[in-house]
Write a structure and sequence with these properties.
Blueprint: H1 2-5, H2 7-13, H3 123-137, H4 141-156, H5 183-197, H6 208-221, H7 254-262, H8 268-275, E1 282-284, H9 289-292, H10 302-311, E2 321-323, H11 334-340, H12 347-351, H13 356-367, H14 369-383
Antiparallel strand pairs: 1-2
Helix pairs in contact: 2-10, 3-5, 3-6, 4-5, 4-6, 5-6, 8-13, 8-14, 11-13, 13-14
Length: about 400
């Protein structure tokens, strides 16, 4: 309870730069009979050429005090990539390199952990160094970086389309659903890209999509979470459109979420494990207020609901944030303990414990962190295979922010 009592103080400390890795889209559905009303869509933002979303997102908060709840990645696993945009590619400045020969090809057939073995042998150390450096300067860098990967894969597949910034702002970054993606994540990818391109052997030979996949893994590992071999060889998208963004809602229940997940070959185990990414990050009161006003919904512990009301004012302040669990910068299973205790911050978090198909999985992950880690790794590998592009509809972008 002591940790929860500090929610107000810590949430105020990160009000301008908190992170919520899985965010839910705003598609107008009500998320099921038990879901609370949908929040109004947040205003759109402008992005600068160096991956900087809104100006008020660019200041990293001070590290949270010991014992307070952490910042967490997103909670809405919408692993439903739409069809690739029908955009005409420009002449490629960075043709895709031939992959290294490897006996360790995945059963996917198109990706391999060894794809860059002969192309950029120092790739993994270069990316991890960039992620480590950003995490040292920003306590939300890990959560922000992990969330970018989730959002990118959920839209048109894991193709770095989320990084594209169109001159007319008709891109994924400027959609209302991506409003709360933090600059720290974009800056982490930019730092990794710069480190790779500074190596003459690697310059313009690594896809932005693969950089995002490696950075997401490293953000988890450097936060104390599990490691895994990242499958590589993704092509980057040729373009991006705001209209392609259709993410799950924080107001959706398990059947609504599973309708999205199962359409992409994802299981309820994937849903629960990827929701566990909330162990890093926080969410805006935009996605909380409908649960606590005018009265708290029945899926919240009354004491916790009071804590949330103390953080999120009834006259909505979108720049105030709430942590998802009590281990601020550690990747662990505390999120599931919170969900068990009716202290899930989002309705979609709470819903996991009130549906017979997911309740047992929450209990298993709450009791056994290794079980959570094992499933999270499996789910991240599956996530990373969504919507893969080929040479026919993708490229290796020389600049992650624009097509070649």
């Amino acid at each position: 309870m002591k940790a929860l009592s500090l929610l107000v103080l810590v949430s105020l400390l990160i009000a301008a730069a908190a992170e919520c890795p899985f965010s839910h889209g705003n598609d107008g559905s009500n998320g099921g009979a038990n879901a609370p009303p949908k929040e109004a869509s947040p205003p759109k933002h402008d992005s600068s050429p160096d991956y900087s979303p809104p100006a008020n997102n660019n200041t990293a908060p001070p590290p949270p005090a010991s014992g307070t709840p952490p910042a967490a990645p997103g909670a809405s696993p919408a692993l439903a990539p739409a069809a690739s945009p029908a955009l005409t590619p420009a002449a490629s400045l960075a043709p895709a390199p031939a992959p290294a020969s490897s006996a360790n090809k995945t059963n996917n057939g198109t990706l391999s952990p060894d794809y860059y073995a002969n192309i950029c042998p120092n790739l993994e150390s270069l990316v991890q160094g960039a992620v480590r450096g950003m995490m040292a300067s920003s306590p939300i860098a890990a959560a922000a970086t992990l969330r970018l990967f989730f959002h990118d894969c959920f839209i048109t597949g894991c193709d770095a389309s989320l990084l594209i910034q169109n001159p007319n702002n008709d891109d994924e970054q400027h959609s209302s659903e991506n409003m709360f993606l933090r600059a720290d994540g974009y800056k982490t990818i930019a730092a990794a890209k710069a480190a790779i391109d500074a190596d003459p052997q690697c310059a313009n030979k690594v896809s932005c999509a693969d950089i995002m996949a490696l950075a997401a893994r490293d953000a988890v590992v450097l936060s104390g979470g599990p490691t895994w071999k990242v499958e590589l060889g993704r092509y980057d998208a040729l373009g991006a459109r705001a209209s392609d963004v259709d993410l799950p809602l924080t107001t959706e229940d398990v059947p609504a979420l599973m309708k999205r997940f199962s359409a992409h070959g994802l299981t309820v185990d994937d849903l629960v494990a990827l929701s566990g990414g909330h162990t890093l990050g926080a969410t805006s009161c935009v996605f909380v207020n409908s649960r606590i006003y005018p009265t708290a919904d029945a899926f919240l512990d009354p004491g916790f609901a009071s804590q949330l009301q103390g953080i999120c004012p009834s006259n909505l302040d979108p720049n105030t944030f709430v942590f998802f669990d009590q281990s601020v910068t550690s990747f662990d299973n505390n999120y599931f303990l919170m969900v068990q205790q009716k202290k899930g911050v989002l309705f979609s978090d709470s819903a996991l414990y009130f549906d017979s198909s997911s309740k047992g999985i929450v209990d298993k992950f709450a009791a056994d962190q290794n079980a959570f880690f094992t499933q999270f790794v499996s789910s991240m590998v599956t996530l990373g295979r969504l919507g893969l592009k080929t040479a026919a509809n993708g490229e290796f972008r020389a600049s992650c922010t624009k097509p070649n």
